[in-house]
Amino acid sequence: MRIATVKDQGQEKAVVVTSEGVVKVESINQTFHTEFPITIIDLITAERVEELRNWVGDNSNNLQEAGFIEANDYEPLYRNPGKIWGIGLNYVDHASDLSEKAPSTEPASFMKPTTTIIGPNDTIEIPHQSERTTAEAELGIVIGKECKNVSEEEAIHYVAGYTTIIDMTAEDILEKNPRYLTRSKSFDTFFSFGPELVTTDEVNDVHDLNVSTRINGELHRKNVVSNMTFTPWNLVSFHSNVMTLKPGDIISTGTPGAIHIQDGDVVECHIDGFTPLRNNVRDLKQ
């Protein structure tokens, strides 16, 4: 199942995205007398994504009765996750881009504030404080159930699904001092995610997915998830041993390659089988 968020009469609401059309969860409730939460974050925190997925699978031939809608513009999946974890230098090739040594014993993780969040087709803003900002396509893992001290083998059972992410870094700020990592990652508009949450059953093996950073229609860098130093399930397990992961928490798993961005650029995250995530760039100094 694929779900996304649209703006409807000023409110952000969940929709189910199918090959036949897009239908609001709210309309499903009204038509079929179900009682699903009507936002993605509420579906996740109530731990009802799997229930909705099963219902949609059983009723796929009748969804049109709820009314398909035009959905050309999607919002971020949601705006207030409890935590956003980012992972640095998780592909060895990306570490070599930055002339740095890739971590080999434990993930190099950091946290981002929710005020960084934007969605598909929103504008990434290069801040006044940075002369060199990068954009980085990444695979996102969305936690679906509360988990603490889970093993790698158990991790998939705590995941609601995957999404496309573009993460930004004020690289020149970071280069001044590695202790500036949080600041370099935390400017407004520095975390784009969506347009779809793809549930785990839609992906045969997450390790086979190719992740690509693209700019202005051209491929910048591509790599396969299996080339990560720390796999998605390792990341879920590792961070669950640091702190309790809650439904809606996000782990952005690292980029195959960062690209310097400037005013007027269009940056994209492409993942095999996923709808691409696309954002325009504006330099606030222009």
Strand composition percent: 25-35%
Mean pLDDT value? 95
Radius of gyration over C-alpha positions, nearest whole angstrom: 18 Å
Q: What separation lies between the terminal Cα atoms?
A: 42 Å
- DSSP summary: helix tally: 8
CATH domain topology of the largest domain: Fumarylacetoacetate hydrolase, domain 2
Secondary-structure-derived class: alpha+beta
Q: Looking at this structure, what is the CATH superfamily of the largest domain? A: Fumarylacetoacetase-like, C-terminal domain
User: Could you name the CATH class of the largest domain?
Assistant: Alpha Beta
Task: Describe the oligomeric state of these chains in a short phrase.
Answer: single chain
Q: How many beta-strand elements?
A: 17
- Corresponding CATH architecture of the largest domain: Alpha-Beta Complex
The 3D shape can be described as: globular
> H/E order of the elements?
EEEHHHEHEEEEHEHHEEEEHEEEE
Tally of individual domains? 2
- Spans of 5+ residues with little confidence (pLDDT < 50)? none
Description:
This protein is an alpha+beta fold. The protein folds into 2 domains: 2-66, no CATH class; 84-283, Alpha-Beta Complex (Fumarylacetoacetate hydrolase, domain 2), CATH 3.90.850.10. The chain has 8 helices and 17 strands. The strands form 2 sheets. Strands 1, 2, 3, 4, 5, 6, 8, 9, 10, 11, 14 and 15 form a 12-stranded mixed beta sheet that branches. The longest helix has 10 residues, at 49-58. The radius of gyration is 18 Å and the shape is globular. The model has no long low-confidence stretch (mean pLDDT 95).
